[in-house]
Design brief:
Strand order of the largest sheet: 3-10-9-5-6-7
Helix content: 10-25%
Oligomer: single chain
CATH topology of the largest domain: Immunoglobulin-like
CATH class of the largest domain: Mainly Beta
Radius of gyration: 27 Å
Strand content: over 45%
Shape: elongated
Largest sheet: 6 strands, mixed
Number of helices: 1
Order of helices and strands: EEEEEEEEEEEEEEEEEEH
Number of domains: 2
Amino acid sequence: MLTLFLFSVTESVKIRILDVPQVAQAGHDVPLTCDYDLERQRLYQIKWYKGTHEFYRYTPLDRERIKLFLVENMHVDVQRSDDRTVVLNNLHVDMTGKYTCEVSTEGIFETVQGNAGMTVVAFPRGGPHIQGVPNEEVQIGDELLINCTSLKSKPAAILNFFINNNKVSHRRGISLRQFLIVNEEDTPQTESSILSMKFHVRKNHVRQGRILIRCEATILNAYRGDKTKEIFVRTHQAANLSNNKYSSIASKVSIAATLSWLINLLVLIGLT
């Protein structure tokens, strides 16, 4: 929750605390709070804006104290709103933006404003998902192509791979590629992120005959998800012919798994 303390030396009316969440989850209800000090003056009006668009007005002397103004995809809970708090229902991702509270007094008609930004996040639909891990044992020197996917969020999730709990970066021997898919048919529009990792199995990757592959997906400070899979490694080398055989099998399995992942991904994006 972002809390701003705002003080004025030239105006007697003050906004003491403006509480607007920095990050909020889509589909949830969120209160926006504007706590003010009138310094013995009388309140004339409270106004709330999203960007430049007024959406809420509170006038204590009017017969209908609360007046709403249409902002697309915004839903105000009038029953839980008053002069200091506005409650937004069932947040839509389009509600990301800057929110301004404006307080005005009667008489000399002083006005003061405070504003803060809010980002509305739509969480991914499950996952993240790891594809391309062979079911067969692999051996030192095999090349693997492993993909991590986080489906349909807003904004897109940031993906990172970990090998044995060590974060992977793009360096010699490891290739990382990132992809972004914009799901334009979704309402609201969502994004899917993919991280592809290609590497050769090395001795320093192996811990007790296996390699732990973990993918972590994060969105700002609001969401974190991860998935771990194991790759089993042959620790006793056989003859060269046998080694080549197993290496060929592992490579084919990795390629087949990747092709299967691409097909399933396209189907999943189309159906979800």
